[in-house]
Amino acid sequence: MADTNVKKQKTSPGKFMREVRSEVGKVVWPTRGETVQTAIMVLIMTTILAIFFLGIDSVFSGVVNALLDLAN
User: Fold this and answer.
1) SS (HEC) of the chain
2) Residues above pLDDT 90, as percent of the chain
3) Is residue 10 part of a domain?
4) Domains identified in the chain, total number
5) In a domain, 6, yes or no
6) Residue 38 in contact with residue 30, Cβ under 8 Å?
7) Which residues contact 38 (CB under 8 A, 6 or more apart)?
8) In whole numbers, what is the pLDDT of the chain averaged over residues?
């Protein structure tokens, strides 16, 4: 169980901004080429999944329609 008597030390806004600036400086940003390559891969995968789910939906729709026709 956590000790409830421990008080959190407050950080001043100036110190907070310095820490944020320091952390942002550690971030490794992707290059333009990496960003373009990733975007292309996302578009390709999205297209593949859209086609896959279209096929699955069509199969299920056909099965449901066939079952409904049998019920009539």
Assistant:
1) CCCCCCCCCCCCHHHHHHHHHHHHHCCCCCCHHHHHHHHHHHHHHHHHHHHHHHHHHHHHHHHHHHHHHHHC
2) 82
3) no
4) 1
5) no
6) yes
7) 30
8) 91
Question: What pLDDT score does 58 carry?
Answer: 98
Q: Is residue 48 part of a domain?
A: yes
Residue 13's Cβ-side half-sphere holds a number of Cα atoms within 13 Å equal to 0
Q: Which two tokens mark 48?
A: 């593949």
pTM: 0.61
Domain hosting 43: range is 32-72
* Paired tokens of 24: 């942002």
Confidence at 5, pLDDT banded by 50, 70, 90: low
**In a domain? residue 24:** no
- Torsion from C-alpha of 20, 22, 24, 25, nearest 10 degrees: 170
